[in-house]
Amino acid sequence: MLGKGGCLELLLVLLGLEIRRSGGCPAACVCYPSPMTVSCQSHHLLAIPEGIPEESERVFLQNNRISVLLRGHLSPALVTLWLYSNNLTFIGPGAFEGFAQLEELDLGDNRQLRDLAPDTFRGLGRLHALHLYRCGLVALPSGLFGGLHSLQYLYLQDNQLAFLQEDLFADLANLSHLFLHGNRLWSLQQNTFRGLLHLDRLLLHQNRLQSVHRRAFHDLGRLTLLFLFNNSLEELPGEALAPLGALEYLRLNGNPWDCGCRLRSLWEWLRRFRGSSSSVLCEFPERSRGLELKELRAEAFAACSAAESLHQVKGARLPPADKAAPRDLPPPHASAEKGGPRHRKPAKHCPKGRNRTARPASLGPRKEEMQDQEAKLGFELLPAGPPKQKAKCPRTSLLPPSGVQQAAGGLGGGGARPAGAALLAFLLACVAIVR
């Protein structure tokens, strides 16, 4: 006759689950097979637990108190690693060396991380999602994203970034989503976004932007969504938006627009734009205060000379003292690589179509999904449905790891399972045996 323990084991077999015995899985963790998944979240861990199986492909360590990540702490076999909501302050040299299979890395919500070495992510050629939101980052060193040819999603929102190096994203030819909102950026330079040939969404709202170079978006011909609302923009050259031939959604509200001669080029561009745009309310001059820029008549700009109405960038204005770039950053100036290539071919190192990881309900929700942001901001945004897929690399839908999905109650895709009635009868029999 089955005892209580035997009944539980048989039930796990019927459900297709397995819990590793002591010695094969760290004490604070639960391990699932095929593919090997280790779940150690929310255990107040102060360090990476020892004994994580070397064949582990998915390791979940979120919501702990881990402060340091060093080389050798984790196995290079990893495909997915979640370390969000810890106390990370330092990532050692070579911590991810040899992690050639890694596809998703979540280091978000580590608010004391602040600094990253230029080679932190070197060699992660298959990485397709990198989460660095709410990490207290003050600067991003040149070369930080070098070689990440497969990256499609980059989350940098809610940090303290005041300046972006030119060509910082030059290697990210397959990037489709770039989240930079909630930082302290005050200027966009000529080559800030050079190389992002397949970018689909660019979120720059809730920064301190005062100036946008007329060629800041020159490589973004496939961009469909651009958010610049809630900044400090008084002007924006229409020439800056001219390369955005695929743009569908533009948000410019919440800026102190000066609807004088310097905004004439934006007025002309908006009148031709056929996508969805927010209101652009004039703050200056006094006679135009509260008026919608797009509704102004041509007579409002009749007194403007050609030199005034044709926007010329005279150089970025320096921000106030509290908005200045950190001292260790170079001043904003034109790129020294005047003869360098302006266009890069899309990388051929596309990630393979593996069963990539979505955040299952049992492991906590993804806190930075776009729809959550839209609800908090309280304005209409996008139609339902996924964004247009324009990158050369085929996008594989994100699925939860099979073991975790089953543990959360989902049995789909796991092969044949006993019928619901038979399973219920078996459970009732177990209860009777235990009693």
TrEMBL record:
Intracellular or extracellular location(s): Cell membrane; Cell projection; Membrane raft; Membrane
SUPFAM superfamilies: L domain-like
Entry keywords, A to Z: Cell membrane, Cell projection, Glycoprotein, Leucine-rich repeat, Lipoprotein, Membrane, Receptor, Repeat, Signal
GO CC field: cell projection; membrane raft; perikaryon; plasma membrane; side of membrane
Keyword Transmembrane helix: no
Family: Belongs to the Nogo receptor family.
Protein name: Reticulon-4 receptor-like 1
Annotated organism of origin: Eublepharis macularius (Leopard gecko)
Keyword Thylakoid annotated: no
Gene: RTN4RL1
Top-level taxonomy: Eukaryota, Metazoa, Chordata, Craniata, Vertebrata
Membrane topology: Lipid-anchor
